[in-house]
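User: Reviewer 2 asked us to show a designed sequence for the structure in our supplementary figure. I'm pasting the structure tokens here. Could you produce the per-position amino acids so we can include them in the response letter?
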């Protein structure tokens, strides 16, 4: 039996699909399981033992590239699983699978119900992982709740020998970024607690420039400088006493790795896409709150009356400011950090 799981989304979204992938693998242990993802997103799947092959597609393909992918996929799979309600992933699922299971919108898109032999109606108020695991229910396979992080990586040359914290200051979009003074005060607060501080970053020039702006003259901060791949970041996070980061892929990775994770959320609610702790959530994330905890994850917000607005920041574009994050204090973040460190010490003891 050959199975294809279609997830044409970015890195963090692909990582959130791994509980479904594991559910499929455990439910059909003799099957081969492939994934179709955007080019670049396959990096988050490195070493994943549940996947036999990863197929990549351009995020913005030409008509020629789309036709070539359809020809390569055409009826190659006994079962294709669509993890999205969009047109493109649905078309790819239709092309690839002789039988098909997938998410469909609650309103409209009636043709998508025709495409799938079993349809699961997307629920607007459900966490992304929970929504995906409803596909496991449709396949009559037991749910597996944990994220599967990249494996077989090394953090050599970056990981300190002393206890350490990991900070990832820069999200993909500016409107999810915490204020500069907060990051610097947080680093000082962590050092005062006896922790070395490792700062991670992506490999883009702009991201490096931002981290230079924050910590360029601070020799006490260990700079990862984009040297580690996703498997290496997993190894670094698994050894950390605590991680702090915004709403970004690295934060999802930290939560899934088991590291005590403090996630800083602003305009976007954690209710639907908040970090997924080891073992899953015992109750959904509330849309807003000062400090919330689920398992090994703490979500910190500055609960202004407008939170969560679910907008692209206060100015409604990706490079916007966000008052809720601009006014979030390091003291409030360190409150959650102390809780996370206490939990870590309790587990170790």
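Assistant: Here is a per-position design you can include in the supplement:
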């Amino acid at each position: 039996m050959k199975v294809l799981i279609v997830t044409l989304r970015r890195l963090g979204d692909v990582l959130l699909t791994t509980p479904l992938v594991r559910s499929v693998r455990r439910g059909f242990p003799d099957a081969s399981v492939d994934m179709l993802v955007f080019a670049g997103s396959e990096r988050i799947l490195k070493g994943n033992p549940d996947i036999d092959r990863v197929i990549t597609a351009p995020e913005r393909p030409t008509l020629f590239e789309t036709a070539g992918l359809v020809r390569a996929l055409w009826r190659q799979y006994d079962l294709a699983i669509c993890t999205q309600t969009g047109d493109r992933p649905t078309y790819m699922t239709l092309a690839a699978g002789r039988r098909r299971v997938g998410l469909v919108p609650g309103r409209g898109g009636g043709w998508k119900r025709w495409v799938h032999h079993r349809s699961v109606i997307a629920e607007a108020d459900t966490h992304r992982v929970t929504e995906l695991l409803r596909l496991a229910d449709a396949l009559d396979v037991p749910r597996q709740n944990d994220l599967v992080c990249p494996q077989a990586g090394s953090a050599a040359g970056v990981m300190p020998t002393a206890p350490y914290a990991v900070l990832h200051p820069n999200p993909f979009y500016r409107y999810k970024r915490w204020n500069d003074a907060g990051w610097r005060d947080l680093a000082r607060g962590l050092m005062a607690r006896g922790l070395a501080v490792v700062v991670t970053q992506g490999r883009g020039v702009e991201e490096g420039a931002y981290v230079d702006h924050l910590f360029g003259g601070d020799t006490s901060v260990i700079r990862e400088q984009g040297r580690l791949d996703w498997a290496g970041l997993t190894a670094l996070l698994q050894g950390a006493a605590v991680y702090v980061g915004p709403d970004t892929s690295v934060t999802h990775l930290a939560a899934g790795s088991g590291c005590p994770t403090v996630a800083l959320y602003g305009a976007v609610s954690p209710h639907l896409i908040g970090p997924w702790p080891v073992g899953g959530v015992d109750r959904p994330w509330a849309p807003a709150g000062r400090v919330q905890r689920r398992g090994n994850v703490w979500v910190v917000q500055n609960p202004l009356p407008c939170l969560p607005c679910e907008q692209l920041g206060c100015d409604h574009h990706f490079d916007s400011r966000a008052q809720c994050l601009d006014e979030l204090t390091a003291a409030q973040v360190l409150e959650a950090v102390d809780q996370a460190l206490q939990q870590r010490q309790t587990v170790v003891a």
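For the response letter, you might also mention the following. The two ends are 46 Å apart (CA to CA). The chain has a mean pLDDT of 95.
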